[in-house]
Amino acid sequence: MSIEAPTSDADLLDLLRTDGSLSVDELARAIDVTPTAVRQRLMRLMAQQLIDREAIRIGRGRPKHLYRLTDKGLRLTGSNFTDLALALWRQIRSIEDVRVREDMIERIARALAEQYADQVQGVTPAERMRSLGRLLAQRRIPVSIEELARGTVMTQHACPYPKLAEQDPGVCRMEKLLFSELVGHNVELTRCRLEGAADCQFQADGPAGASSAATAAKQKNGYWGER
Fold first, then answer.
1. Residue 76 to residues 1, 51, 101, 127, 146: CA-CA distances in angstroms?
2. Residue 83 domain flag
């Protein structure tokens, strides 16, 4: 999964990536806009946790603020990882031992789940599925959520891993495991673009408001710990 910054902010983020910490005035001069316009962009990017600021005191008076990319911002601006991901996934596919290959896919899903775990909130599967949908939307992956009698359904209208999934449907299984881990409940891939559908659909079984000690244990211990 990846985030795309709005075009109006891309030049500012690129400057911080190449030049390091910069002040409002330095950014305004570099991109030829007013300091007020820069501050508006900075506040928006700080709210998205893409940048932070540090107060520097030089003598008396008000401190000078320098802005820099956060780890999240660095991942965004330097996220040209497609070729690397394709090469790594080809190596995974080349593993002949099925059990070893499947274990590797589970490990990848777990690693991704650990990275996103604190961004998915809620107690019931439905709440966590909605939170997961918001996380995906923040990363420019269009989704919609429906709460049906049979469970909570998330429709993914664009694939987060288009080139990978085209080469190997195992990516879809990895994503299903990732969602199960984040939701703390079994999530099934009920519809898939690779099988001719217009979109991919994931379902967390059970009524929308359902919650149980078992679900809470899965959220605490991890989905695979309950298998």
1. 10, 11, 29, 27, 30
2. no
Which residues face 188 on adjacent strands? 203
- Cα angle for residues 192, 169, 220 (degrees, 5° grid): 80
pLDDT digits (tens, 9 = 90+) for 100-155: 999 999 999 999 999 999 999 999 999 999 999 999 988 778 899 999 888 899 99
User: Is the domain of 110 the same as that of 172?
Assistant: yes
Do 65 and 97 fall into the same domain?
no
The answer to whether residue 194 sits within a structural domain is yes
Q: What is the pLDDT of residues 162-210, one digit of tens each?
A: 777 877 888 889 999 999 999 999 999 999 988 889 899 999 975 544 4
Domain limit, last residue, from 34, 54, 77: 77
Helices and strands counted in the chain (H then E): 10, 6
* Domain that includes residue 55, residue range: 7-77
